[in-house]
Specification:
Blueprint lengths: L17 E4 L8 H11 L3 E6 L6 E4 L2 E7 L7 H12 L3 H10 L1 E8 L3 E10 L2 E9 L6 H4 L14 E7 L5 H15 L3 E6 L12 E6 L7 H8 L6 E4 L5 H12 L3 E6 L4 H10 L6 H11 E11 L6 E9 L2 H8 L8 H8 L6 H10 L5 H7 L3 H7 L1 H21 L1
Parallel strand pairs: 1-4, 8-12, 8-13, 9-10, 9-11, 11-12
Antiparallel strand pairs: 2-3, 2-7, 3-4, 5-6, 6-7, 13-14
Length: 406
């Protein structure tokens, strides 16, 4: 594949749909452009650069254009220049972009922000998506994670998975779990990430962070090496393929605590995705190994808040339990589902619709958002019927009172 990248020098935002910034007169200063985009809204999560569009930021899941004063939409040369600047002299990233059409790197504005950067080719030109990484490691209270997850710091072995759709906050949760371990355990930690997002200083633990491609060629190779580096805890940024999953099982089975993430929508799909990555003949043994080694599956969904200020976190929490292990090992489809087993085995095992119901009753999210993100819309609608019936009566009463008064 021909890359639009040549050697070149390294290159906003604001409010509702189109905002204006006045920091510069061109797209040529990448750092100034990024700084201006971050300044446009304090809760910017992503920056997007695409040919024939203005620079864009994403805030609470919505894209907004940034109008750089006097500047037209970006050209293909502008986005190529920005991408080249972000990649810099990373030869592995340049090679990956040319061969596979996309690459991932990290980028930092000293004292301001760090980014996870994805550069890719589309229609023969390049586009760039940048995820903003908070400078401070998030903690449990800020994220709203279940208190039960604090048990992770005491685990000596096994697998803890954080799952969810893209942009559901998996990296932040993994960072919070690792920081918790860092604060309370004197142990050796190895992380393998693509790219490194949160920089973890040594606290009680000694942490070595390795970045894919620059420090190790693959997750699986990095994991294999980690087993010889005497860690007690291993963080694998993402379980992307069968080989990495196999190495995660091996690490957990040999006395290591492994934290990782997977793109899946809930606990049920997480188990299905892991099992389906292996050949049919291997699946019974994979189910048995997963049932034995998993400790937590933390699935996440971010829902738009009713007040318009950001998004609310709903967490499904699957914990190790004999009844859950039995369901995971079963592959005949005749027994209960994982969700049914969660409800039956342990009331502390949060499930999505139960957590979404709590958010509705607390006035945090709207009915429409609840239905959009529900696992079983009809069941949730029935469970909330008393709440909305009562709310409708209260509204009718207020309207009647107002009519009488007028």
């Amino acid at each position: 594949m021909r890359s639009p990248f040549k050697k070149s020098e390294p290159e906003d935002i604001a409010g509702p749909e189109t905002a204006t910034t006045s920091f510069c007169s061109s797209y040529s200063d990448t750092d100034a452009l990024l700084t201006s985009m971050l300044a446009a809204h304090e809760q910017t999560s992503d920056l997007i650069f695409s040919p024939n569009r203005l620079p864009q930021i994403e805030v609470h899941g919505q894209l907004h254009d940034l109008q750089v004063q006097g500047m037209p939409p970006m050209s293909a040369d502008d986005t190529r220049r920005i991408g080249s600047s972000l990649i810099g002299s990373n030869k592995q990233a340049i090679s990956t972009l040319r061969e596979k059409g996309s690459c991932d790197v990290s980028y930092g504005l000293p004292g301001i922000a760090r980014f996870r950067v994805h550069v890719f080719i589309q229609r023969g030109s390049c586009a760039v998506v940048m995820r903003v990484i908070p400078t401070a490691t998030p903690d449990f209270e800020v994220l709203g994670l279940p208190a039960a997850l604090e048990e992770v710091a005491a685990l000596r072995d096994g697998i803890v998975l954080v799952t969810g759709a893209q942009g559901a906050g998996k990296s932040s949760t993994l960072a919070a779990l690792l920081d918790l371990i860092n604060r309370v355990r004197r142990c050796h930690v190895i992380s393998i990430e693509d790219p490194i997002e949160f920089l973890d200083p040594h606290k009680e633990a000694t942490i070595h962070q390795r970045e894919l491609y620059s420090d190790t060629p693959s997750f699986a190779i990095g994991l294999r090496a980690a087993l010889r580096q005497s860690p007690k805890v291993i963080l694998v940024g993402e379980m992307r393929d069968r080989e990495t999953m196999e190495m995660v099982f091996e690490a957990a089975e040999t006395g290591h605590l492994v934290l990782s993430s997977l793109t899946s929508i809930d606990a049920e799909q997480t188990v299905a995705r892991i099992v389906s990555a292996f050949a049919p003949a291997e699946r019974p043994s994979i189910r048995a190994r997963l049932a034995k080694t998993f400790r937590f599956v933390v699935s996440q969904r971010l829902l738009p808040r009713k007040d318009g200020h950001g998004r609310a976190l709903a967490v499904e929490l699957l914990q190790r339990h004999p009844g859950i292990s039995e369901v995971i090992q079963s592959d005949d489809g005749a027994g209960p589902s994982i969700l049914q087993a969660m409800k039956r085995c342990n009331p502390e095992m949060q499930h999505f619709d139960g957590e979404i119901e709590k958010l509705v009753r607390a006035g945090v999210i709207e009915h429409d958002a609840a239905m959009t993100f529900a696992t079983d819309q009809e069941a949730l609608r029935i469970r909330l019927s008393d709440f909305f019936s009562s709310a409708q009566k209260n509204l009718s009463g207020k309207l009647s009172s107002a009519a009488v008064s007028s």
